[in-house]
Amino acid sequence: MSPxxxxxxxxxxAVITGxxxxxxxxxxxxxxxxxxxGVTPDWIRERTGIEQRHLVDPEGATSDLAVEAGRRAxxxxxxxxxxxxxxxxxxxxxxxxxxxxxxASRLGLGSIAAFDLNAACSGFVYGLSAxxxxxxxxVYGTGLIIGADAISTIVDHDDKxxxxxxxxxxxxxxxxxxxxxxxxxxxxxxxxxDGDLLDILLTPAGGSRxxxxxxxxxxxxxxxxxxxxxxYRHAIARMAEASLDVLAKTxxxxxxxxxxxxxxxxxxxxxxxxKQIGLPEDRAVINVDRVANxxxxxxxxxxxxxxxxxxxxxxxxxLLAAFGGGVTWAAATLIWPDLPxxxxxxxx
Length: 348
Description:
Layout lengths: L11 E11 L3 E4 H8 L3 H8 L3 E4 L6 H15 L7 E5 L11 H7 L6 E5 L5 H14 L5 E8 L19 E11 L6 E8 L7 E2 L5 H4 L13 E2 L1 H23 L8 E4 L4 H11 L10 H4 L6 H12 L7 E8 L3 E8 L13
Parallel strand pairs: 4-5, 4-6, 11-12
Antiparallel strand pairs: 1-7, 2-3, 6-7, 8-13, 9-10, 12-13
Helix pairs in contact: 1-2, 3-4, 7-8
């Protein structure tokens, strides 16, 4: 596993001061997906736990979602001056350049440091970890971490494996430099990857590997391919392993965890991960039924939903866990801060 990353009391780290999220206006229910795929709505529901998903309209892009989520998070934090922006995404607006500088510009943040981070569905926790490191350096005082994906733009909507699963969205948090004894501080984190499993979640076309072959990509190579059974098995194993690792670093027992906020891949993965680490299912935050798998946006969207419903309260001990393409995985712990009420992640 990763090297020791526990933040001792008094250690400089990231403290969450605001949160925001956004979802596209278009809602696609299982009935519409089922009719296209020649299956039943129950077939989708039983396999994934998903009832509906939000999809970007034509000409919509990741940056549109990221800007709105970022704006809402900044408003919730009192619109502080921001020193850097990290955009966790695997669906940037363009292959080149990165999307984060455009998002920073549209938010009016000036010429701050801004960059994309691609760890797929683990991206938000990776971004939190990277942001905490930047704040711990003493060079930066405040950052904006955004997880955003228009994942539907790389999904074949005629594919029974991927089409029912994915949706689009964005979530963001404002973080400031603080100490590990403050509510909202990132207490510990663990990150990992295994490139030997690259092929279980992969879009073959569009990158230098395919383009250097000097041959046109077939249409299916432009879409996300997924080996579902392998993803299921490795997602549960890696998120459980990372969760137990980060709990040990934090000094928490499993029963200390009030809320598990894991990547919303599908309901079966979420409940199986909770069971694997010995946590009651009712402590796992689940909103995949309403938003589907939104990749890097999934954890902040789940935090927003849980906060809005009262399921997540100030003082709760929170465990974050994620698994994504690459493959990558991540986990982190924090005590949820007392944040002001925020607008729901309604449509943009």
